Amino acid sequence: MAKVELKQPVVNEIIEDIKDAQSIVLVDYRGLTVAEDTELRKQLREAGVTYKVRKNTMMKRAFEGTEFAALDEHLDGPSAIAIAKEDATAPARILCSFAKTAKALELKAGVVDGVVYDVAGLTELSTIPSREVLLSKLLGSIQSPITNFARVIKQIAEKDGEAVVAEAATEETPAVEEAPATEE
């Protein structure tokens, strides 16, 4: 069997992984301890991110003709690839956070929604909250005025209710008439 025939299944697997990817981040993993690598893989897996160590030549072939072809220039030295299909900022967020504690992990570059980012760009992207957090903040800001309005209306209704009760109480209490003063 020729070498190309042996490598083609690996290239096809990478192509399948990146087919519907929203983002890809390349990292240099050299120097990570087994415990650090295990923890990193666990965090990425929990976020729905695929993380694999692949040969650069295989990734170059898989990236040909895709929006990820711009990463070819960053494929030097050992590389691992983090692929996200749901949350586009998840790989950058997790890898940047992990790189703060594991100094051996180095980000190389990434593509998020078709835009190529260098290390500084990925670090900036890592500060963006996840889609779910952003949606909950949006929902909270939309609900806030409505909630405040409802609270004010309730307070007005309660005040009016107290005024009605106070008015009814004064009407029910008969006024005490004073007897005319007698002269002695």
UniProtKB/TrEMBL annotation:
InterPro entries in UniProt: Ribosomal_uL10 (IPR001790), Ribosomal_uL10-like_sf (IPR043141), Ribosomal_uL10_bac (IPR022973), Ribosomal_uL10_bac_type (IPR047865), Ribosomal_uL10_CS_bac (IPR002363)
Pfam families for this protein: Ribosomal_L10
Keywords: Ribonucleoprotein, Ribosomal protein, RNA-binding, rRNA-binding
Domain of life: Bacteria
GO annotation, biological process: translation
Gene3D superfamilies, per the entry: 3.30.70.1730, 6.10.250.290
Molecular-function annotations in GO: large ribosomal subunit rRNA binding; structural constituent of ribosome
Record family assignment: Belongs to the universal ribosomal protein uL10 family.
UniProt-listed PANTHER family: 39S RIBOSOMAL PROTEIN L10, MITOCHONDRIAL (PTHR11560)
Protein's recorded name: Large ribosomal subunit protein uL10
Organism taxonomic ancestry: Bacteria, Bacillati, Bacillota, Clostridia, Lachnospirales
